Design the sequence.
């Protein structure tokens, strides 16, 4: 990252106000925690805590009776996670971002859905992708590439 770019990012952070600064700090800490957890804890154990895994046709939209505050918070959390992920010392992958945003939203009482998909790139290599939706908003991992087909989603326990 070039020095002028870093300076612009620092200036933007310092002038963004305490609420946004707190979201960025929280996102940075949780992105690091998510990286460690995803490396250390077996996926099946993690997935049990994410809710029920259902096929795409069973995913009900979560935008019914959503308050404007929940939408505003989902948008702000998505912004904080994406903006922070772009400047982390290690690459914050899509699943790490989705898990981080899910934790941040859960702390605020907002339910979310982690979607999981896969496809093949132009060279034929298998690629996977995770994205998160909450309060009728696309929080992380959007837009989803056209080569990705949704396999299923982790929805809140019923």
Sequence:
């Amino acid at each position: 990252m070039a020095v002028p770019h870093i300076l612009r990012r620092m200036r933007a952070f310092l002038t963004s106000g305490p609420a946004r600064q707190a979201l960025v700090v929280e996102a940075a800490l949780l992105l690091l925690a998510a990286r460690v957890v995803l490396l250390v804890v077996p996926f099946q154990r993690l997935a049990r805590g994410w809710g029920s895994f259902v096929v795409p046709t069973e995913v009900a939209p979560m935008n019914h009776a959503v308050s404007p505050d929940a939408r505003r918070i989902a948008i702000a959390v998505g912004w904080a996670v994406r903006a922070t992920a772009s400047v982390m010392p290690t690459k914050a992958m899509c699943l790490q971002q989705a898990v981080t945003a899910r934790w941040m939203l859960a702390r605020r009482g907002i339910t979310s859905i982690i979607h999981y998909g896969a496809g093949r790139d132009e060279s034929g290599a298998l690629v996977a992708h995770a994205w998160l939706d909450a309060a009728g908003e696309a929080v992380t991992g959007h837009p989803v590439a056209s080569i990705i087909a949704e396999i299923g989603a982790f929805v809140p326990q019923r």
Observations:
- The helical segments are 3-14, 18-40, 43-48, 68-85, 94-107.
- The longest helix spans residues 18-40.
- The beta strands are 52-54, 112-120, 126-134, 137-140, 149-155.
